[in-house]
Amino acid sequence: xxxxxxxxxxxxxxxxxxxxxxxxxxxxxxxxxxxxxxxxxxxxxxxxxxxxxxxxxxxxxxxxxxxxxxxxxxxxxxxxxxxxxxxxxxxxxxxxxxxxxxxxxxxxxxxxxxxxxxxxxxxxxxxxxxxxxxxxxxxxxxxxxxxxxxxxxxxxxxxxxxxxxxxxxxxxxxxxxxxxxxxxxxxxxxxxxxxxxxxxxxxxxxxxxxxxxxxxxxxxxxxxxxxxxxxxxxxxxxxxxxxxxxxxxxxxxxxxxxxxxxxxxxxxxxxxxxxxxxxxxxxxxxxxxxxxxxxxxxxxxxxxxxxxxxxxxxxxxxxxxxxxxxxxxxxxxxxxxxxxxxxxxxxxxxxxxxxxxxxxxxxxxxxxxxxxxxxxxxxxxxxxxxxxxxxxxxxxxxxxxxxxxxxxxxxxxxxxxxxxxxxxxxxxxxxxxxxxxxxxxxxxxxxxxxxxxxxxxxxxxxxxxxxxxxxxxxxxxxxxxxxxxxxxxxxxxxxxxxxxxxxxxxxxxxxxxxxxxxxxxxxxxxxxxxxxxxxxxxxxxxxxxxxxxxxxxxxxxxxxxxxxxxxxxxxxxxxxxxxxxxxxxxxxxxxxxxxxxxxxxxxxxxxxxxxxxxxxxxxxxxxxxxxxxxxxxxxxxxxxxxx
Length: 643
Ligand code: K7E
Ligand code: CUA
Ligand code: CA
Fold this sequence. Notes:
Belongs to the NosZ family. In the C-terminal section; belongs to the cytochrome c oxidase subunit 2 family. It contains six helices and 40 strands.
């Protein structure tokens, strides 16, 4: 820490004189989280070298980090249809890591090594089952209402898969394909066990599905809407096995969970259960569906379920018609304006906020009242609505600052609106003097998701807001027809929102979370014992043959592989098992074989393997792809394939 302090002291002195040179419009006057001051006029004068849009409301906190200075937050970002997840440092916006998940990555060897293929799943010929993915929502595991740094999860909308990322290594360790659903979109982990209230950490992950499909989807019932359905899926957070599914009316968009663990919620559209585009938008209101998790699990225990097709997963009936009696209902349908999009739980644990999308409103639903309805103590489900207020055009997603304010993206208005939830409730209750809109900020352009630092936890700290703008237009150097998205950073520590930075990102992040850095403890070197195939001593390096199956046991130690050459015969099935015996942090080696589609890295004390058919006789220099040593370029072995 001492090192960092001195860097930031240095920054305080230096920044006063160099703010314009840094080209960071209007943010030069204050440094660090503790030094915010209202420098509006001075900032405007200093911003001649800055961006086209100067901050509207003064200086704001400085998001810039000096060389060697660490960020304050991890940003866990979805990578959209790149299929990956990304890690940014915030507030600087520096990209620290890309985590291959549903995509192939020839740097890491994801989709190439046997270990990654085992996670991805393979076809009978050994190739990955799917090669594409579309990640939207990243959420992390909880304990005591805040992040516990164990896992993050991300969905694949294309192939309905849920992936888990270990937050000690920032690598994907499990992928589960959900049965009988399509358009798996919203996900959210529970925040404590809904059944055993003594367990105060994440136990399950809930998954909504957007597209109706026939049950089973085997070509039989193509045009009969009554055979179609959408299933809400519960996955075990530890085993990653699917525990149960719940059939509901309509399509599910985003998912949120309550802090008491009892309820999950999903915004629903297409109440009409239409299977053609035009049939999906006739009803005036859709719903936010609440799932009573304990009751669903009891129904599963009691055998009150069906199964669909070949799947053995229990499917309970959560449709509206089957759940009219609150005392036994598994689900509650709270009516909201039609085609809602995001649903977010407020950090005070009291409210769920549904963004209207087609309606210019947000609906505030009170958790206590929903629980009261399930207990039969509320005669009308509509009484769960604490407020429904107008915000602007195209509300999509909402973040919180922990001080009672919500921040909602207005896609069509290209704006962030900051509004006060308590005032909105007063206004809705008839107090027309209640001013619930606190501030508006134009963003560039058309925001989808937004999130604030620690916003989805009891520790929402109201420091930073990131806005995922879908269009960057002319905000960055032109690079041809494809534009980057624009992640904008906003200082929300004061009354006014202050836009402080733009960051181009490769298409196309959706949701992200901003996690205080001390919540995450990484391991920087692997443990050799965690890998059954590890070669513990370079002296054990060898070539083993069983029929035409050949296994190469190999180690890397800078700057050499333990075998200088290895011989196989044409037609052999060759498995190379490579252990990186270097123990030093940041000493990664690579292993590439020309013409054989092999490339992957091994981190310190890690073991990985690849299997390929030696179908091309000749000499192939296997070489280290990852710069590791002054003799990195010399680090190679000769693969000899005899004819
Ligand atoms: Cu609004 Cu997939 Cu969360 Cu995109 S979704 S923005
Ligand atoms: Cu080993 Cu480069
Ligand atoms: Ca775009």
